[in-house]
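Support reply, case 0932

Customer input (verbatim):
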Amino acid sequence: MSRVLVTGASGFIGRALVPALVTAGYDVRAAIHHTLAPFSSAVEVATLGDLGADVDWRPLMADVDFVVHLAGVAHTEDVAEVLYDRVNHLATARLAAAAQAAGVKRVVFVSTIRAQTGPRSDHILTEADTPRPTDPYGRSKLAAEIALARSGADFTVLRPVLVYGPGVKGNLRALARLAALPIPLPFGAFTNVRSVLSISNLVAAIAHVLHHAPSNRETYVVADPKPVSLADIVAALHAGQGKKPRLFAVPKALVRLGLAALGRRHNWDQLDGQLVVDPNKLIAAGWRPDPDTAAGLAAMAGS
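Our regenerated output:
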């Protein structure tokens, strides 16, 4: 039985990935910060130190065949660039060196589409695009990818877009709460489309590249096959709550002014911008995503 070390195992992605790997027959070592582990007794739980310090990865690598590296500082406000670099870049570089020394067969690094682009793009993104991150978070993840490639370890990089599913936080959680209110929402004019990714499709992508030999030293962008508009997302959330879609159109300029007044100016690109990713490279490698994004969003709203 192959053993997989999953870092950041108690996070949003890790909580879905660990049981899926156990079901698939892997022996899982879940590295977490918290003392209470949300996993079954079949999972070996290990303590992961502060990634902002010099973590000794060697004990965690003992008898490990594969590593899925999820741990890091997420894209949030008020995080210093130096912390992004320490946690997302330098800690990953140390992990890669330890994995190479331990003879780990493959490190799957779950990076982000922000290592490749800003919050919007004027063309459909593929792996062939030159990475141009626009913020410290994206730059730290790209630096981690480069460090991994230079380490000599076998690796695969995944660059997921915005991930949704039960237990999601951030903007999608806030939007789901808005959709639950007994009022129509003013997003009818937002027909620009964006790629999103279900947690189940991401878990399937990670599981696929773990054992897919040609994925070694490859980078893949990861997204549901069909992009959706904000109106589509709200309609799916309403459906998951047993409601009919309730949207009306407000001039975008007014919405932008409202966001500025609420101190949420940074959300404008996510509302009005387009960010479409083409996942066909990973699909051609054998990944089989569920194409029904609306059903996934509805399930999230109903959970």
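We compared this against your earlier run and they match. Two observations from our side: The mean pLDDT is 89. The radius of gyration is 19 Å. Please reopen the case if you see a mismatch on your end.
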